[in-house]
Amino acid sequence: MAGLATTFGSGAMTNSINEIENAQVILVIGSNTSEAHPQVARRMFTAMDRGARLIVIDPRRTLLARRADIHLAIRPGTDIPLLNAMMRVILDENLADDLFIEMRTENFYGLRDMLFRLDLEEAAGICGVDLARIRAAAQLYGRAQKAVICYCLGITQHVCGTSNVQSIANLAMMTGNVEKEDTGVDPLRGQNNVQGACDMGALPNVFPSYQQVDNDDYREKFERAWNVSLPPKPGLTLMQMTHGGKDGQLKAMFIMGENPVLSDPVISKVEETLDNLEFLLVADIFLTETARRAHVVLPAASFAEKTGTFTNSERRVQMVRQVIPPLGQSRTDADIIMDLSARLGYVMDYESPAEIMEEIAMLAPIYGGMHHDRLENSWGLQWPCWDREHDGTPFLHKYYFTRGRGRFVPAVHEPPAELPDDDYPFLLITGRIYHQYHTGTMSRHSPLLSREAGEALLQLHPEDGRRLGLRSGDMVRMRSRRGEVQVKAQLTETVKTGEVYTTFHFSEMPINLLTISAKDHFSQCPEYKVCAVHLEKV
Amino acid sequence: MTEKYILKKDHLQPFLRKLKKSHQLVAPVQNRHGDTLFTEIDNLDKVHIDLDNQPQNSLKRFFFPQQEVLFTYHNPARDSYYFETVADESAPTLYFGVRPCDMSALLYMDVVFLKNARDPNYLHKRQNNILVGLNCNEPFANCFCNATRNGPFIDFGFDLQLTDLGDRFLVEYDRSRGQEIISSWRQFFAEAAESDVKAQYQAFLEARGKFRLQVHLDQAVKKLAEDEVPESVWEELSMRCQDCGGCAYICPTCTCFTIRDQPISDSDGERVRAWDACTFSGFTLMAGDHNPVDRQMRGIEKRFRHKLQFDVKKDNRPSCVGCGRCVNICFGGTDIVRFINMTCCGNI
Amino acid sequence: MPSQLLELYLPKAAEIQEVIEENSQIKTFVLAFVDPEYNDGFSYEPGQFLMVSVPHCGEAPISISSTPVNRGTVHLSVRRAGKLTEAMHDMHKGDVLALRGPYGRPFPMASLVGRDLLFVAGGIGLAPLRSVINTCLATGHERSITILYGSRTPSDIAFKADLQAWGQRDNVSCQLTVDRAEPGWDGAVGLVTALLGHCTLAPHETKALLCGPPMMIRAVLGQLADRGFADQDIITTMERHMKCAVGICRHCHMDDKLVCKDGPVFTLEELKQLNVMELQG
């Protein structure tokens, strides 16, 4: 989220999901929306029913790409040259919104100078896309009165993830496609309540509501409220914690509802790090691969067993209500934290989730008006919601960007950390499928979902299949410089030759044995989307 | 059926209270979140029976639960494998406030579960129940039972059928059990006057004119029978379908199911039957990964052909009852109304 | 409820009397119901199938490969394909599985009487035809019988004992072919259609019964049509995913037909009314 925070000042969808229905042009980049966010895809379909045009930028010919007016099947990891080329076309054809740039943004000249030095043919060559098609896409987007850009992990999970996002923001600002209804830049969140977790400060550098820990005023505010002294130094990022624990300085970890043994890159490194901890505590609803390595496992309650709120991609805070009491010995997350804290000597005395929400409203300004009684009988409120009288905010940056002026941050192409070569001639892309969720901790317990998608498949182009003597259903040994897995082949023209695609849901085929630990310099998000592999028939 | 009666609205609750003594009561209830659902009612005085909104669910799950244990199996040793039936404890039930679409759907389910073979679990739940229907004076937003020809009023299938006449209900009966109920609880029923019967007909006439959707179902049936549906329709719909199965789950006439073993321990388990959907690719997938249906291009074809072609061929009527629930639930926009519109008008 | 009704989905335990290893992929299980009274009363017709239950694996339809003339046991010939059949292949003599059935429309045995018979099978496809052939032979079928059987390799040839016994009959011509020869094989190499080309047949007096992979079926159908076979004289069996086997769950749909109830045996005439993927190139 660092990308949008530096350009707009706020790292979240600028629109509401419903607004997508009214867009005239929808640009989807790095998102297999119809599989990963079907509820967003449905709005795209509605918009198209109403005449909207769709541009999809994706290395694969996904279902959504097949429906697109323009599909740009770029080489993975070449988003920046593509977006830069689109912006150059927009400049050349006078489609930039000069007034918007003048009124609401800064540093446009920095971007413009960089674009004028860009060689369009060369950029198109890097992306592997015909320049005429890039031109067509730029014209379509640049001419729209109301245009929405949706992106997802295909943008952020690269070494240049933050710059990718900044380029998207540049494109939107340059054409004035932000700060309005039905118009904006929309990162689609990967999981339920990831937005909420970030909002609540589950990041190394901020308290709830994105108040920096190294800012004395903010820190003092929280110290007063909690009556403790708080460290002024940002904490460790996820990758720092699970990859070496800062050279063994990390002694203990408490992992809640996350399964890094399957989900983080270079699994062997994660396993080694966790096994070297003096103490590992895991709270989850099922015994995950990570929980199996823990010294103590605490059974947590599922969504149906607790009351509280979830915050979704469009910043909407919604109530979930307890339907049944926690089963067996399981307890709610809040209960676990409060009890643990009390035993460690700090009493947290909250009689209900509503009381916790009151404290959130007090300390986190963007949640200032969010109280359970207001959320109870509604579809929720979208932050920022400053106080009880405030109705929430369907779209962000009305009148001005959160950070004041939107800042253009020019970006140049940075190739993926590892590209195919003679030894590892295929480029592996990882992603998700519709019927499974994340590491399958929950979804693999459903017999029906497992029937629909019960094992990992490696998509590869029929031509590559022929060369390797592979037919659909054959087992393939796939290895990278970091590890090796066996996976079933599926020949399909969804992927281009030289590129293969699979999912990370299945513990029998832990794909993150292969992925690379190279990560974005700012967000520390790993480059899951690209690594080089070698294939052979088993 | 000639006799018609009047039940005053004030007497509805006392009447239900009497019947509830011998029957479990299921009726549309509006919950505290504003959703109206067919619900088992424990305490008649503590719920709001909602006859103004369409229940979001049909009666399907009461006769054909989403998951149901058929029997348990036991395999304590390699040479021992035996089964124990599970007693179905469902009590005699009164279903109240059943709309013509849901009533017709139930009659269709009778054919599915009892014609080729007599399904024991369904039969048990279908026996010993009372069906009290309610004609629709005000079709709901997505209703098109006028096109499927089983509404807005219905004159068969029920035990008792009510028509709202303002402060009172006109009551008709179809089966002998309905007649028995009226004679057992004669104090609630007055004989209908000529004017009441006329008022009922007027309500019917007016209801017929209030449908908001125009669905050319007959035309789609004809095109399917004559094989005139363009390939592009199937392709477009299959691509839009998000594979959630919502249409089949919400549909009162979708009755396809799967059967599977649910292990409980190494030696024991349950054989479970659960709702399935023909739109899922696993529905037809055979051992060895062979699938006789091209899922990407024709994944959704079977659903519409079954309802509007194969069942018409067999039973001379479509097995869509026009309740419109799939229009609400489908987020890919691949519901039956869209299919019919695309087929007949070329709209997408 | 009458007890018979309760048992619609309830299988009956059956003990494995013998396991015959036909080849590396196919085993024939000789089964008898544990309940002796039920076993005595059990009957079926060629072409019908049973739903087989294996603990924790659910059920799968398997066609009966024995002839009903031999009472007391029933044969199921099973190729390794999925979870249930894998589990079956791990079972031995004395182990118990469970069966329900028989289900499905059988081969029209009466219509075979007094006609020449042509059987064309590939791989496991011989299983249901074996039931028909052995029934015809046991009931004294007098006219000529031609059996053409294709396998991948000589070591893949299944039902060797039957093939040998059939070959010794005067009115039976039994011919084998393989896709790929192995050392020591001096028989035919190639598709069954090549064998078919060399057969002398009287199309109007012959019934043709086929069972095998879709590619083979399509090729054979083409040739039979060229030689003047009428669609109603060509009979085959269809395979579909099944759950209830009694015409309710609709997994085995083929247009308005259900394979469990209207099939699995169909004439080509019937199949041509339907949209069947196996018949489409």
Describe this protein with a few key phrases.
heterotrimer, A: 538 residues, alpha/beta, Dimethylsulfoxide Reductase, domain 2, Barwin-like endoglucanases, 6-stranded mixed β-barrel, 5-stranded parallel sheet, 22 helices, 21 strands, C: 281 residues, Elongation Factor Tu (Ef-tu), domain 3, Rossmann fold, 2 domains, 6-stranded antiparallel sheet, 9 helices, 23% helix, 30% strand
- List the secondary-structure elements of chain B in sequence, H or E: EHEEHEEEHHEHEEHEHHHHEEHHHH
Relative helix content of chain B? 25-40%
- Termini separation of chain B comes to 45 Å
Strand tally of chain A is: 21
> What is the 3D shape of chain B?
globular
Specify the CATH class of the domain at 2-188 in chain A: Alpha Beta
**Shape type of chain A:** globular
Strand order of the largest sheet of chain B: 3-2-6-7-8-9-1-10
The average pLDDT of chain B is 91
CATH topology of the domain at 2-188 in chain A: Dimethylsulfoxide Reductase, domain 2
Report how far the terminal alpha carbons of chain A are from each other.
41 Å
Proportion in β-strands of chain A: 15-25%
The overall number of domains of chain B is 2
Rg value of chain B: 22 Å
Contiguous runs where pLDDT drops below 50 for at least 5 residues of chain A: none
What oligomeric state do the depicted chains represent? heterotrimer
Mean pLDDT of chain A: 90
Kindly state the percentage of residues in helix of chain A. Answer: 25-40%
In short:
Chain B is an alpha+beta fold and 348 residues long.
Describe this protein's structure.
The complex is a heterotrimer of chains A (538), B (348) and C (281). With 538 residues, chain A is an alpha/beta fold. In chain A, 32% of the residues lie in helices and 17% in strands. Chain A has 22 helices and 21 strands. In chain A, strands 16-20-17-19-18-21 form a six-stranded mixed beta barrel. A five-stranded parallel β-sheet of chain A has the order 3-2-1-5-6, sandwiched between helices. Chain A has a three-stranded parallel β-sheet with strand order 9-10-11, with no helix packed on it. In chain A, strand 12 and strand 13 form a beta hairpin. The longest helix of chain A is centred in the N-terminal third of the chain and has 14 residues, at 79-92. Chain A starts with a helix and ends with a strand. With 348 residues, chain B is of the alpha+beta class. Chain B folds into two domains: 5-58 and 91-208, no CATH class; 217-257 and 270-345, no CATH class. Chain B is 35% helix and 21% strand. The radius of gyration of chain B is 22 Å and the shape is globular. The N and C termini of chain B lie far apart (45 Å). The mean pLDDT of chain B is 91. Chain C is globular. The model of chain C has no long low-confidence stretch (mean pLDDT 91). By secondary structure, chain C is of the alpha/beta class. Chain C has helices at 3-6, 36-41, 83-89, 126-138, 160-167, 192-197, 214-226, 259-262, 268-271; strands spanning 12-21, 26-33, 49-54, 58-63, 74-79, 96-103, 116-122, 145-151, 172-178, 188-189, 206-211, 234-237, 253-254, 257-258, 265-267. Chain C folds into two domains: 3-103, Translation factors (Elongation Factor Tu (Ef-tu), domain 3); 109-237, 3-Layer(aba) Sandwich (Rossmann fold). In chain C, strand 3 and strand 4 form a beta hairpin. At the B-C interface, strand 4, strand 5, helix 4, strand 11 and strand 12 of B face strand 4, helix 3 and strand 6 of C.
